[in-house]
Amino acid sequence: MKPLFALAFSSVLVLQGCVFAPGQYLDPDVFKDGAEMEDGNVQLLRITPDMLKGDLSSDMGTSSKQELLDYKPEAYRIGANDLLYITVWDHPELTAPSGPQQQIDANGRLVRPDGTLFYPYIGNVQAAGRTIEDLRTEIARRLANYVDSPQVDVSLLRFGSQRVVLSGAFNTAGEVPVTTAPMTIVQAIGQAGVDTDTADLSGLMLKRDGREYMINLDDMNRPDSWLHQVYLKDGDQLHLPYNDQKKIYVLGEVIQPQALSFKTTSYNLMDAIGTAGGIRQETADAEAVYVIRGAENIATEQAKVFQLNATSPTAFALAKSFPLQPQDVVFVGPAGITRWNRFISQLLPSASVVGVGAAFNR
């Protein structure tokens, strides 16, 4: 019966080897520049120095960047709900009609919704749309009919007409008033604070005049960052999304397969592999390091699979220069011997069944 057992065992071995190769595998040899899978929905690309010369990142275009830099803040213009403090020197009855003992706000002049304010002797004055200097000159001119050589000063106690809105993963989200001191994006973010544990730092968006601008927060850390020259204006909205919906998935023959939160635009393939503990040297196929990137609409766009040959340690220089995107899947395939060992581990139960059957026939 031994020859019968050997024949049966060999038959199972051949059949299972042909049909049931355990685990996921993609042959690195199929990768050629611009090659496609049979259905045409997936493009296969090798990660090479020539590829990395192209722009694989999602940084802001030059024209959009220049649009933001072109805006230069002008002198502050008064608006409705601003609270003004108007001083007429040597005339405390005009400066502080409620008395000097009152809080300074009690003697403020509120700009009404129609843009006007009331001032003694001269009545209603159009304030909205004027600069502080314009309003000071207008009040002094009209007071000259009642006061000899009036010396007038105007300052703002509270800014209520212009604002920037910050939303999302800021420590202090909400409205930030636009004041007489111009405010940059960097200053606004610094004032609000960022919750770095939950924020998607790669997704900061500035909405202005019906347009949306993606901002790379990583640039803030550079001393010569152009973001220090981008000023905010009334109506701007800054939104910093949360990172709970943006992940990078590291799977296959790595020490710790896991889903990584995508926080910055500078997250690269080397970061992902390193965070996952590195490649399993004893089980991984170093040629089979892949980045699988889906398409927004698979019916009209091609998904992409990038392949890195990491048989040489120098390949990790390429990995460090390859930027990842949210929802990318990093997959490290198994070596041939690993697949064989797993195949054998699945085969043994079947071999045991054959052995029992052979023993029974005896």
Automatic annotation (TrEMBL):
Q: Which Pfam family, just one, is annotated for this protein?
A: SLBB_2
Q: Which GO terms describe its molecular function?
A: polysaccharide transmembrane transporter activity; porin activity
Presence of keyword Nucleotide-binding: no
GO CC, sorted alphabetically, is: cell outer membrane; pore complex
> Which membrane topology describes this protein?
Multi-pass membrane protein
Q: Where is the Outer-membrane lipoprotein Wza C-terminal domain?
A: 335-355
**Subcellular location as annotated:** Cell outer membrane
Domain Polysaccharide export protein N-terminal, chain residue ranges per copy? 72-156
Give residue ranges for domain SLBB: 162-239, 246-332
Annotated signal sequence is 1-21
What are the GO BP annotations of this UniProt entry? Answer: monoatomic ion transport
Q: Keywords assigned by UniProt?
A: Cell outer membrane, Ion transport, Lipoprotein, Membrane, Palmitate, Polysaccharide transport, Porin, Signal, Sugar transport, Transmembrane, Transmembrane beta strand, Transport
Entry's family note:
Belongs to the BexD/CtrA/VexA family.
Q: What name goes with this protein? A: Polysaccharide biosynthesis/export family protein
